[in-house]
Amino acid sequence: MHKNREKRISVKEVFVGISRTVGQVINGFEVAGLCFGVGALAVLLIVNVIAREFFRSIYFVEELSKFLVIFITFVGVSYAVRKARHIRMGAFFDLMGPRLEKIFIFVISAVSALVMFLMCSYSLAYLLESKLMGQTTEALRLPYWTFLVIVPIGFFLAGAQYIRTIIRNIVRKEVWMSPDQQTEYEEER
Questions:
Q1: Are 158 and 116 in contact (CB under 8 A)?
Q2: Interatomic CA distance for residues 63 and 50, integer angstroms
Q3: I want to staple 30 with a disulfide (CB 3.0 to 4.6 A). Which of 77, 79, 86, 91 is the partner?
Q4: What is the DSSP code (8-state) at residue 185?
Q5: How would you label 175-187 residue by residue, b for 16+ Cβ within 10 Å and e otherwise?
Q6: Cβ 155 vs Cβ 77: under 8 Å
Q7: What letter does residue 176 receive in the DSSP assignment?
C-alpha cells in the first residue's frame, strides 16, 4: 500500500522561489530596457547627425535623447546592483573573514535598500508634483512627468535587488555580493 506523502515546503524554499521569479522578471525588464534604450539612443543620434549634415536637424531629438539617457541611467542602477557593479569597499571585504563579510553585506544591503526606497518615495512625490503643475516638453508638447516615470521605478527595482541580496545571503551559506554575484572576482554568468 502506497501512502501519499505530503511534500512540505519550507519558508526558505518559498523565499528562494519568490526571489528567483522576481529576479527573472526584473532581469527581463532590465536587459530589454537597456538594449532598447541604448539602441534607440544610438539610432536617434546617428539619424540626427545625418539629417543635420544634409538637411535640417530633427527638432525633437534632443528631448528624446534626454529621456533615453534618464531611462538608461535608472534602469542601469538596478542592473548594476544585480550584477554587483555598484560602489563598494572591496579592499575591506578582502581583509574580513566570511562571517564578518556576511554581516557587512547584510548591513550595506539593508541601508542601501532603505536609501533606494526613500529615493523612490521622493522621486514619486516629485513626479506627482510635476504632473499637477501640468508642464509639457518644449518640442513634443508631451507631459513632462511622463519622462520621469522611470526614476521611481529604477529606484524601486534597485531596492528590490538589495532585498534579494539579503534573501540570498540568508538562504545560502556563502557570501553573495548581489543576488547574481557570489564574490567580487567570480566570472559573470
A1: yes
A2: 18
A3: 79
A4: T
A5: bbbbbbbeeeeee
A6: yes
A7: -
**Bridge partners for 69 per DSSP:** none
DSSP type of residue 140: T
Question: What's the CA angle centered on 75, arms 70 and 81, to 5 degrees?
Answer: 130
Q: What is each CA distance from 118 to 64, 107, 111, 121, in whole angstroms?
A: 28, 16, 10, 5
| Contacts for 186 with CB less than 8 Å, ≥ 6 apart | none
| Residues 166/116, Cβ–Cβ less than 8 Å | no
What is this structure's pTM? 0.77
User: How far are the Cα atoms of 27, 41, 48, 68, 142 from residue 44, in angstroms, in the given order?
Assistant: 25, 5, 6, 10, 18
Residue 2 has pLDDT above 80, yes or no: no
Q: 59 is written with which cell numbers?
A: 527638432
Question: Cα 111 to chain center, whole Å?
Answer: 16
State the helix-helix crossing angle for 150-171 and 11-54, rounded to 10 degrees: 150
More confident: 97 or 69: 69
Q: Is the pLDDT of residue 42 over 80?
A: yes
pLDDT of residue 7: 62
Contacts with 155 (C-beta within 8 Å, 6 or more apart), sequence order = 74, 77, 116, 117, 119, 120, 123
